[in-house]
């Protein structure tokens, strides 16, 4: 059973471009969570999604950030008009229900 | 609001020493507590998961304890090795909020 998959593992964008981060949950998991780790800081919750629904986005910046988890395909975290402060590691986790979360390897975003 | 604190922030020990990493959380209403290892620039490796009804978990040289009533967990590493050098993260899963709250981590360096 493959673990949580994230791609790309590394992403470089120039200021003002869009970043799209993908997360494929473990097989059988319908709950996805996104976390951000800024340099030298711990992981911070961003958003919790179930298929086609955003359950909790209390940790997501109000502007430029959006997330979706469509009926088919991976969950997408989209950052529009990236700024240098968006440079961070973005981790995705999945679970079967409101239960133990399994984490992916992360995507490291660098904004030039 | 749940907060997770890890002490010490950094620790340097000689090889072979037994050591204890501490984690405290402010709200005892947790679903489970998990200890992770993170190597520089890498993802998270789950070390031990303790359900709220459990007192401890063991894996090899690692032992984690949980005292919900006092809001504390400890990670005990026996006979430390240079390969144990990494950042150790404590995280609590708050079932009601469906999110994992992370501590800032303890950076461990084991000298050969």
C-alpha Rg of chain B, in Å?
13 Å
Q: Regions of chain B with pLDDT < 50 over 5+ consecutive residues?
A: none
Look at the helices and sheets of chain B and give the structural class: mainly beta
Distance between the termini of chain A: 37 Å
Given the helix and strand composition of chain A, which structural class is it? mainly beta
Query: For the terminal residues of chain B, how far apart are their CA atoms?
Result: 41 Å
List the secondary-structure elements of chain A in sequence, H or E: EEEEEEEEEEE
Helix content class of chain B: under 10%
H/I helix tally of chain A: 0
Percent of residues of chain A in beta strands? over 45%
In round numbers, the mean pLDDT of chain B is: 92
Largest interface: A-B, 24 and 23 residues
Please provide the count of β strands of chain A. Answer: 11
* Radius of gyration of chain A from CA coordinates: 13 Å
Topology:
The complex is a heterodimer of chains A (112) and B (112).
Chain A: E1 5-7, E2 10-13, E3 19-24, E4 31-37, E5 43-50, E6 53-56, E7 65-68, E8 75-79, E9 88-95, E10 102-103, E11 107-111
Parallel strand pairs in A: 2-11
Antiparallel strand pairs in A: 1-3, 3-8, 4-5, 4-9, 5-6, 7-8, 9-10, 9-11
Chain B: E1 4-7, E2 10-14, E3 19-25, E4 32-38, E5 44-51, E6 56-59, E7 62-67, E8 72-77, E9 86-94, E10 99-102, E11 106-111
Parallel strand pairs in B: 2-11
Antiparallel strand pairs in B: 1-3, 3-8, 4-5, 4-9, 6-7, 7-8, 9-10, 9-11
